[in-house]
Amino acid sequence: MSSDLLTKITESLVDGDPDLTVAHTRAALAAGIEPMAIIDQALVPGMRIVGEKFSCGEYFLPNLIVSASGMKQAMQALEPELGRRQQKLKSAGTVVIGTVKGDIHEIGKTLVGTMLAANGFEVHDLGVDVPTEKFVATVRDTGATLVGLSALLTTTMNVQQKVIEALSTAGLRERVKVMVGGAPVSRKWADEIGADGYAEDAVGAVEMAAQLVGAKA
Ligand code: B1M
Question: What is the pTM of this model?
Fold first, then answer.
């Protein structure tokens, strides 16, 4: 029963039927499936399949857009439940997060932000295609102790480095930790550009954020 619902969520996401994805997501919640299981076992695998189909030329941009919209709407349906499960790491710190300039991929960044908020962080989500100066100004204005930089394109990964440099130039690097992530990003890259932390997924991002902010306190 549970696995049937999860499969239906994945299939509707891959087929590009956002209404059905949301309906199955709500049905899964009603059946008592944990929101994180829905994300990890149905939605994320669905987007992975969509990406593979795009890579091999079976899907085109409109397919990506429709599936991404399904994922976004399903996440919106899950958000209140994620919030209700807020646990452990309460009031862990203030985080500024966004997808770097030139990059409009929002799903992974939003998922990370949602998970951080659900785990007690105060999250300032700047959205996508965020100018470097906006990261710097928001870190300064909010007193954030952590900034999260998402990049999904090999061509925008280097902007993560630019933000780190800009934080240094602004004299803020000493008081803010930097966490980077996104599909093409690796621990090696994080080390290379002088980031403090890297996480492969949203759950890892929460753990890393707690570790980094704890280290700062
Ligand atoms: Co684009 N796209 N896309 N795309 N897209 C990718 C990334 C790509 C890998 C597809 C492919 O070719 N197989 C490829 C990048 C190739 C590369 O550079 N290596 C690509 C390309 C080429 C492009 C365009 C250039 C296509 C074009 O126009 N010709 C274009 C670029 C636009 C731009 O940004 N300037 C483009 C556009 C788009 C859409 C707008 C159509 C759409 C985005 C819609 C939206 O976000 N609202 C889109 C989508 C949907 C994808 C794929 C299919 C799915 C991305 C996604 O949402 N995944 C993607 C293929 C793929 O990744 N397999 C692809 C689900 C999400 C939950 O995972 O974002 O990886 P992800 O986030 C994960 C982790 O990475 C991590 O945690 C998240 C949760 O587990 N994480 C962090 C993410 N951020 C983090 C931050 C952290 C820590 C962890 O700390 C701060």
Answer: 0.84
